[in-house]
Amino acid sequence: MRLTRETLLAGAAVALLTLTGCGGSGDKAATDDKVPATATGSLEDLAAEVKCKPDIQTDADEIRQGVCRISDGKFILATFATDRGQREWLNGAKDYGGSYLVGAKWVAVGDQKMVTTLRGQLGGTVEEGASHHSGSSGGGGTETTHSGHHSG
């Protein structure tokens, strides 16, 4: 199945509607009224929009990724060569939870407050990653890391 911009926007809109209805403050409605048109450009162009000089972590043909620090905290900004590459990266990343601000061939990743702040400057749509239960068995590892403990 080929993802089109309309499909991506429709999915993001559903995610945004879900988020808006789930335990937020009344400020979200006011924030939605002030969302600018979605920014476009290179990683450096997007970073300049929020007055950040990115610390580039990945500089490849398919993806460029950097860490940005602004007065409200830090976030990861990634740009992609293709819409498909962006969607594949986002689908994999969302398994780890978190909040994602999604634009045209770019994603900003941070906590929910940071993503809301960035949305007021860059536009875009908000998507949430998988929600993991807070009850932990302790180590934070996966079950496969424990497979060597069984005697055979």
Q: What is shown here, in short?
A:
This protein is an alpha+beta fold and 152 residues long. Helices cover 35% and strands 23% of the residues.
Describe this structure in words.
The chain has about 150 residues and is of the alpha+beta class. It has five helices and six strands; from the N terminus they run αααβββαββαβ. The N terminus and C terminus are likely disordered.
Descriptors for this entry?
6-stranded antiparallel sheet, 5 helices, 23% strand, 6 strands, 152 residues, alpha+beta, disordered N terminus
Please compute the radius of gyration using only Cα atoms.
17 Å
Q: Beta-strand level of the residues, as a percent range?
A: 15-25%
Helix/strand order = HHHEEEHEEHE
- Can you tell me the overall shape? globular
- Placed side by side, the strands forming the largest sheet appear as 1-2-3-5-4-6
Q: Helices and strands: which structural class?
A: alpha+beta
Oligomeric status of the shown chains?
single chain
Largest sheet: 6 strands, antiparallel
Mean pLDDT: 75
> Helical segment tally?
5
| Total beta strands | 6
Helix content: 25-40%
Unreliable spans are: 1-31, 133-152
N-end to C-end Cα span: 44 Å
SSE diagram, text form:
Elements lengths: L4 H17 L5 H7 L9 H7 L5 E5 L3 E8 L2 E8 L2 H11 L5 E5 L2 E5 L1 H11 L2 E4 L24
Antiparallel strand pairs: 1-2, 2-3, 3-5, 4-5, 4-6
